[in-house]
Amino acid sequence: MALIQAHSCLLWGKIKILAIVTFIKGGYTMPSSNEILSGLTFSANMFRPFAIIWHLIFFALIVALLTRWKPSNRLFAMLFSLPLLSVSFFAWLTNNYFNGFVFLLASIISFTTAFKINEHPISGGMRWSSVSGSLLILFGLVYPEFLHAYSPLEYIYASPVGLIPCPTLSVITGFALIFFLTMNPVYGCSFYLQLDYFMAFSAYSDYMLFLIR
Known about the structure:
The protein is an all-alpha fold.
């Protein structure tokens, strides 16, 4: 059974890479650094009300978890396909078709992969993973880029989580570190594979944006 699940995990990874390569070879041209920066800035500011809604959702989730709500591992993993789908939606709206396609694919893979995860109640991980995860969640929820804030307090409730890749992936990865390290790694491998890939992709994008400033 474990061998079958491992093979399935590798197959998902190959399908994802093949789809991305096919999309690029199909004639799509990556936007310039300035276009990427403009699109992310536009999303962070034009769709600010949606970022506030996502903050309320994540804050409510954190409060529920602190008050001993324990959903199943499967349900918890399914929930995190929604922020990825949200990033895809806003990427399409700003004509960033690559991010739109990739994050749509990510949300589908996250949702389908969740069915391979057990239905045991979630449980916390080791201390180092809980601390690291908490810092990533905090970073994502107060992400200080692209938002034109009139006060530093605005970053607490209006940073572009759920709108653009980096803060959204930071929050999702934070929760994964806290709660998913205790699962069988075979079941969670494709979930971690896509998070690692997208965190690397997001870090690269942020680095390129930093260079043009």
